[in-house]
Structures are given as structure tokens and as C-alpha cells.
């Protein structure tokens, strides 16, 4: 199931700011850098930008030889492993399940680190690099998104800590079928207010 979202710019911003939307991998360290899942650009005052937020995820891995393994559908509770097959390195579903709230990627190669990427709607959502042999990456996401105004961010790329420290709006999507995300605030002069985001026209699933 997809959640249908619609970003609406009701702000007084005249700087053509970019809007970044991302999720946090809650299984990792607090200071972990996150990926800009969606970046909305050139959305002027009064404009809106519809997009979908899929519940489904996919996983892909890369090895130290520069090989990228095809994306596979992933759901919470699954454990994937990178193994050395007769044909070379492959990503496969492990026979033993993991925690029901997580997707895990395990490096079962004899040598060489791997990287793992979680995708939503074809765009990177979370990235873990340098997973050593015998180690695993754990991905766990709450049903929330983070949204804020940012500059110099690129969709699908890791954001720097300065960008992330300015974004503190967490929006829960739990049980929602569709909603508008309305941005207000901004503008020049002493009457300028901080940017704010809120849900409107919420339809529950």
C-alpha cells in the first residue's frame, strides 16, 4: 500500500528553498548521517507537489570489487546475506528470519567489505557502508518522515550533519491513507516566522 502525500507551499519564502524529506534508521547511532530520500525543488508560493510514500522497501548491496547486486523486495523480519557463489558474489535471502521490526543485511563473504542500501520508490532511503565479513547492517524505520528546508542537498545522497541539525519536524504517517503536508512561515523582515509543517486533509486508512 502507498500513502498519497501532497506538499503544499503556503509559506512566505521568496528564496526558492528546497524541501527535503527523509526517514531515520532508528537502529543506528544517534549521530548517523541520513539520506535525502526526496528533494522538492522550485515549488513556488501557492504551488503543490504530489508524491507517494510506499510502505514497500527494496534492498541492494555492493561488494569491494565494485559489483552491484540487483534490488530485491524486502520486508521487516527478513535477513539477507551476501555470499560467494560459484558465479561470484550474490545477495540472497537467508533461511533464518530476524527481528520483526528490522531488515538485516549480513556479510557472509570470506573477505572484503560490502555496502547495503535500502530503497523506497526506487530512491535510496538509507545506506550502510563498510560492513566487514561476519558483520551485519540493521535497518529499522518508524512510520514517520522528517521534513525541512535545506540547501545543497541531492536526492538519494547522504546529507551532512549541518543540514540535519536544522531539521527537527517529525511527521507521523501511522494509519494514514493520504494527507497534505502544508508549509508555512518564512519571508523577509522582522515579521518573518520559522518554517513550519503540518498535516491537513488527512484521510485515515
Report what the structure shows:
The protein is mainly beta. It folds into 2 domains: 2-54 and 141-204, Immunoglobulin-like; 57-137, no CATH class. 2% of the residues lie in helices and 51% in strands. It has one helix at residues 161-165, and strands spanning 2-9, 18-22, 38-40, 48-54, 57-63, 72-74, 79-85, 88-93, 103-107, 114-120, 123-131, 136-139, 144-150, 169-172, 176-186, 193-204. 27% of the residues are buried.
Keywords:
205 residues; mainly beta; Immunoglobulin-like; 4-stranded antiparallel sheet; 51% strand
Helix content: under 10%
Overall number of strands: 16
CATH topology of the largest domain: Immunoglobulin-like
The radius of gyration computed from the alpha-carbon positions, rounded to a whole number of angstroms, is 19 Å
- Can you tell me the CATH class of the largest domain? Mainly Beta
Largest beta sheet: strand ordering: 4-1-15-16
Which spans of ≥5 residues are poorly predicted at pLDDT below 50? none
Number of helical segments with 4 or more residues: 1
Instruction: Encode the helix/strand succession as letters.
Output: EEEEEEEEEEEEEHEEE
CATH architecture of the largest domain: Sandwich
Distance between the termini: 10 Å
Query: How many domains is the backbone divided into?
Result: 2
Q: Strand count, sense and closure of the main sheet?
A: 4 strands, mixed
Determine the mean pLDDT.
95
Q: Tell me the fraction of residues in β-strands, as a range.
A: over 45%
Protein name: Aromatic ring-opening dioxygenase LigA
